[in-house]
C-alpha cells in the first residue's frame, strides 16, 4: 500500500491486530468533534426521514405449492405440475413478483383510476412519477402504475417450506387486503389459464397431426397391398400361396419316395427269392394272388390224379399221359403268373420312380418361385414395417388426443391459498423505534467511518510507532513544543534558552533522552559526528541542534555545533551574534578554526557559525577542506553536531551526512507527510549515509497526552510532576 493511503499506526493498532480499546478511544478522542458532527447530522437526517414517511398498512396473503393433487381423469396433463423442489418454489416467488401478474391485478382492480396510484408524485416512492407527457399517454401511465404497485409488493418464502407470503402496502388497510388477495387469485387463475391454453393448443396440434397420420397410414397400407398383388405375394392363413404349395409338394414328395422305396423293396425281395431257386410260389405278391392260388389248386388236383393213375397204370397209359400233361400245364401257368407278377412289380417301381421325379421337379419349380417371392418380400417387409410404424404412431397420437380431450376443463392449479389477507388494524410503516435504532446505528457507523477516513488521510507522523511502522526506522525521541510544557512566564523564551534556564525541566530531559538515543544508535561504534537533517524547512532542526548541543555541554562533554545551512544562518541568529569569520572562511583558509569558533557562555558548548555574506557557489562542503576540518573537530571535541540544510531543498545535506557517524532525520509532529520523510531517508541511504532514526519535533505534549498520540500510557502532567526537583 502507498504510504500516503496507508492507515495510520494508531488506527491499525486499534482495529488491525485485535481491538485495542485504549488506542481506539484515543483515536475517537482526537477526532471527537468530527465524530459528533457526523453523528448529529445523521441523527437529524434520520428524524427528518421518519417524519416524511407516510402511514402505511400491510396485508398478507399466504399461498403454498400443493404437492397433493386430485386426479379427476387418469391421464397425464399436457402442462405438468410443479415439483416440490426449492428451486421451483423460488421460481414461483419470482413469478409472483413478475410485471405480467402485476398488470393483471392492475387491470382487474382498475388501479389506473385509483387516486393513490394515479396521482403524479415526482421522485416520490408512491404514485406515478412523471410529467404531463406521462399522464397524457395511457400506456405510459399504466406502466407507471404497475411500477408503483410492484414497489409496494413484497413476496417472501417462509423458511424452507412451500409457503409463499404475498404482502402489500397501502394507505388504506382495506385496499391493502384487497390487492394482496387479488395477487393470490390472479396467480392461481394464471396457472389455470396456462394449463387450459396448453391443453387447447395440444388438442389443436394433435387434430392436425392425426389427419396427416391417418393419410399416411392409408397410403402405407395401400402400398403394401399393391405390392403383394403386383408380385404375387398373396397369402392365406398367414402364408403365401407359394409357401403353401411347397408345403404340399413336400408332403407329396415324402409319400412318393416312401411308395418308391416300398415297391423297390418288394421287387428286390421277389428277385432274391427267385435267385435262390424258388419257384416263385413264396413271393409275397404270388401268395396274395388269387390266380396263383387257383393254379396251385388245379396243380394239386392234377398231381393227385397223376399219383392215383400211376398206381394203376403205366407211364404210357393215355389217362396217365393226359394227367401228366395237365400237371405240366399247371406248372407252366404258375411260372407264367409268377413272371407276370414280377413284371408287374418292376412296372410299379418304374411308375413310383417317375412319380417321385415329377414331384421333385414340381418342388424345385416351387422353390425357385419362392426364392423370387422372398427377394420381393424384402421390399414387402420394408413396406409392412413402415406401415406398422405409421399405424403405431397414429394409434399413440389418437390415444393421447382422447386423453387430452377428456382432461380439458379438468385442470387444477399447482398452488392453493392457505390464508386470505385480512384488513390490518395497525399500521406497519413507519416503524419509528426500528428506524430510530437503525438511524442511531448508522450514525455511529458513519461517525466511526469518518474518523477512520480522517485517520487514514492524516499522513503526518504522530508518535514513535508511526515512525517505526510507516518508515521502518527507529524513533529516537521527541522534541516538545515549548509552550506545551513551559510555565506561562517562560513561554516567551526561545527553546534553546529555556534549556539553560530550566535544565531539569521535562523539556530539557527530552533532549537528554535524544542525546542518549543518538549516541547509542549504532551499537559497537563510537558516534562522534551527528548530522541533523530534515526533509523540508521549518522542521525545528536548528533549534533542536542548538538545544542538543547545550544539553550535551551541560552534561560535561566537549561539544561543537557546526552551522552548515549556508542559506539561512539560523544558529547565528539564535545566538544573536554577527561573527566576522565562520565556517566558509575556515574552509577557504582565510581564517583559522580558533578564530571562527564561538563559545556559548551559558552552556560551555562551542559553535562554528556562518559569517554574514559568506555564501559561495563552490561545492566547498564536499571537498577535501571539509574532510580536514572534520578530522580537526574529531580530535578536539567529543561530539560534533552538524546543522544541515533541508534534504529536499539543498544537495549539501547528503554530502555532509556521509561524513557523519550518524544521520538523524527530524520531522515536524503531525505536519510533515510520512512520504516526504520517507523520501529523505531514501536519499540518505542512496548517498551511503548512516540514517539511524527519526526525531519528531515541536510535539504538543498536552494534545498528545489528551488525545492519545503519545508513546507513553500516562498523562504528561504526571511526567511533569515526576520530573520536577523535590526537596528531601
Q: What do these coordinates show?
A:
The chain has 728 residues and is an alpha/beta fold. The chain is built from 27 helices and 14 strands. The strands form 3 sheets. An 8-stranded mixed sheet has the order 7-14-13-8-12-9-11-10, with helices on both faces. A 4-stranded antiparallel sheet has the order 2-3-1-6. A two-stranded antiparallel sheet has the order 4-5. β2 (153-157) and β3 form a beta hairpin. α3 (32-52) runs antiparallel to α14 (432-457). The longest helix has 90 residues, at 318-407. The protein is elongated.
Which secondary structure elements does this structure contain, and how are they paired or packed?
Layout: H1 9-15, H2 21-30, H3 32-52, E1 57-65, H4 86-96, H5 99-109, H6 115-118, H7 132-136, H8 138-151, E2 153-157, E3 163-170, H9 173-230, E4 235-236, E5 239-240, H10 241-275, H11 284-288, H12 290-310, H13 318-407, E6 415-419, H14 432-457, H15 464-471, E7 475-480, H16 482-485, H17 495-501, H18 506-519, E8 529-534, H19 541-554, E9 559-563, H20 570-575, H21 583-588, H22 593-596, E10 598-599, E11 606-608, H23 624-636, E12 639-643, H24 652-657, E13 662-668, H25 674-687, E14 691-699, H26 701-707, H27 716-723
Distance between the termini: 55 Å
Describe the sheet with the most strands: 8 strands, mixed
Helix percent band = 55-70%
Unreliable runs, pLDDT <50, ≥5 residues? Answer: 1-7, 70-75, 710-716
- Spatially, the strands of the biggest sheet line up as 7-14-13-8-12-9-11-10
Let me know the number of strands: 14
| Rg over C-alpha atoms, rounded to the nearest angstrom | 66 Å
β-strand amount: 5-15%
The residue-averaged pLDDT reads 79
Oligomeric state of the chains present here: single chain
Shape descriptor reads elongated
Provide the structure class. alpha/beta
Amino acid at each position: 500500500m502507498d504510504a500516503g493511503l496507508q492507515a495510520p499506526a494508531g488506527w491499525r493498532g486499534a482495529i488491525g491486530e485485535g481491538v485495542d480499546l485504549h488506542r481506539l478511544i484515543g483515536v475517537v478522542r482526537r477526532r471527537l468533534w468530527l465524530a459528533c458532527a457526523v453523528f448529529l447530522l445523521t441523527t437529524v437526517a434520520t428524524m427528518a426521514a421518519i417524519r416524511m414517511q407516510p402511514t402505511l398498512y400491510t396485508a398478507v396473503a399466504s399461498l403454498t405449492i400443493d404437492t397433493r393433487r386430485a386426479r379427476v381423469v387418469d391421464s397425464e396433463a399436457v402442462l405438468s405440475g410443479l415439483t416440490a423442489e426449492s428451486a421451483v418454489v423460488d421460481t414461483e416467488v419470482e413469478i409472483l413478483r413478475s410485471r405480467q401478474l402485476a398488470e393483471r391485478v392492475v387491470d382487474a382492480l382498475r388501479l389506473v383510476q385509483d387516486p393513490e396510484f394515479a396521482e403524479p408524485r415526482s421522485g416520490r416512492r408512491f404514485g406515478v412519477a412523471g410529467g404531463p407527457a406521462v399522464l397524457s399517454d395511457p400506456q405510459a401511465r399504466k406502466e407507471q402504475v404497475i411500477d408503483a404497485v410492484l414497489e409496494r409488493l413484497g413476496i417472501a418464502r417462509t423458511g424452507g417450506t412451500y409457503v409463499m407470503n404475498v404482502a402489500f402496502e397501502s394507505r388504506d388497510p382495506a385496499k391493502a387486503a384487497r390487492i394482496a388477495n387479488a395477487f393470490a387469485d390472479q396467480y392461481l387463475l394464471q396457472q389455470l389459464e396456462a394449463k387450459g391454453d396448453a391443453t387447447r393448443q395440444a388438442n389443436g396440434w394433435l387434430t392436425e397431426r392425426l389427419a396427416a397420420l391417418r393419410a399416411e397410414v392409408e397410403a402405407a397400407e395401400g402400398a403394401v397391398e399393391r405390392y403383394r398383388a403386383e408380385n404375387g405375394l398373396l397369402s392365406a392363413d398367414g402364408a403365401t400361396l407359394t409357401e403353401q404349395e411347397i408345403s404340399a409338394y413336400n408332403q407329396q414328395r415324402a409319400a412318393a419316395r416312401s411308395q418308391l422305396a416300398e415297391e423297390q423293396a418288394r421287387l428286390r425281395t421277389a428277385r432274391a427269392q427267385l435267385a435262390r431257386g424258388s419257384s416263385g410260389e413264396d413271393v409275397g405278391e404270388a401268395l396274395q394272388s388269387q390266380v396263383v392260388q387257383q393254379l396251385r389248386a388245379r396243380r394239386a388236383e392234377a398231381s393227385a390224379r397223376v399219383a392215383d393213375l400211376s398206381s394203376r397204370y403205366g407211364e404210357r397209359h393215355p389217362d396217365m399221359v393226359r394227367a401228366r400233361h395237365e400237371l405240366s400245364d399247371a406248372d407252366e401257368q404258375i411260372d407264367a403268373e409268377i413272371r407276370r407278377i414280377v413284371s408287374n412289380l418292376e412296372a410299379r417301381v418304374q411308375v413310383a420312380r417317375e412319380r417321385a421325379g415329377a414331384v421333385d421337379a414340381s418342388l424345385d419349380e416351387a422353390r425357385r418361385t419362392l426364392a423370387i417371392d422372398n427377394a420381393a418380400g424384402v421390399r414387402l417387409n420394408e413396406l409392412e414395417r413402415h406401415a406398422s410404424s405409421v399405424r403405431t404412431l397414429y394409434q399413440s397420437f389418437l390415444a393421447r388426443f382422447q386423453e387430452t380431450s377428456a382432461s380439458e376443463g379438468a385442470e387444477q392449479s399447482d398452488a392453493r391459498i392457505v390464508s386470505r389477507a385480512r384488513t390490518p388494524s395497525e399500521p406497519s410503516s413507519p416503524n419509528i423505534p426500528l428506524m430510530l435504532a437503525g438511524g442511531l446505528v448508522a450514525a455511529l457507523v458513519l461517525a466511526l467511518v469518518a474518523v477512520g477516513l480522517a485517520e487514514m488521510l492524516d499522513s503526518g507522523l504522530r508518535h514513535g510507532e508511526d515512525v517505526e511502522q510507516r518508515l521502518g526506522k527507529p524513533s529516537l525521541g521527541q522534541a516538545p513544543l515549548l509552550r506545551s510544557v513551559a510555565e506561562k512566564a517562560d513561554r516567551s523564551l526561545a527553546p534553546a534558552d529555556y534549556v539553560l534556564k530550566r535544565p531539569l525541566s521535562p523539556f530539557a530531559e527530552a533532549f537528554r533522552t535524544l542525546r542518549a538515543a543518538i549516541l547509542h544508535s549504532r551499537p559497537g561504534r563510537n558516534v562522534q559526528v551527528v548530522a541533523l537533517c530534515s526533509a523540508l524547512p521549518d522542521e525545528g532542526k536548528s533549534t533542536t541542534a542548538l538545544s542538543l548541543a547545550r544539553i550535551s555541554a551541560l552534561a560535561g562533554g566537549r561539544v561543537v555545533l557546526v552551522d552548515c545551512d549556508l542559506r539561512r544562518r539560523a544558529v547565528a541568529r539564535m545566538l544573536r551574534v554577527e561573527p566576522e569569520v565562520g565556517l566558509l572562511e575556515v574552509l577557504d583558509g582565510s581564517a583559522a578554526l580558533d578564530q571562527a569558533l564561538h563559545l556559548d557562555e551559558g552552556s560551555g558548548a562551542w559553535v562554528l557559525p556562518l559569517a554574514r555574506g559568506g555564501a559561495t557557489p563552490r561545492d566547498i562542503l564536499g571537498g577535501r577542506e571539509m574532510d580536514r576540518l572534520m578530522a580537526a573537530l574529531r580530535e578536539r571535541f567529543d561530539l560534533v553536531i552538524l546543522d544541515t540544510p533541508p534534504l529536499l531543498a539543498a544537495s549539501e545535506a547528503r554530502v555532509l551526512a556521509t561524513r557523519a557517524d550518524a544521520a538523524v532525520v527530524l520531522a515536524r509532529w503531525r505536519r510533515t507527510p510520512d512520504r516526504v520523510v520517507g523520501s529523505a531517508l531514501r536519499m540518505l541511504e542512496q548517498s551511503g549515509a548512516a540514517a539511524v532514526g527519526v526525531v519528531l519535533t515541536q510535539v504538543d505534549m498536552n494534545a498528545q497526552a489528551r488525545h492519545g498520540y503519545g508513546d507513553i500510557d500516562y498523562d504528561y502532567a504526571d511526567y511533569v510532576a515526576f520530573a520536577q526537583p523535590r526537596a528531601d
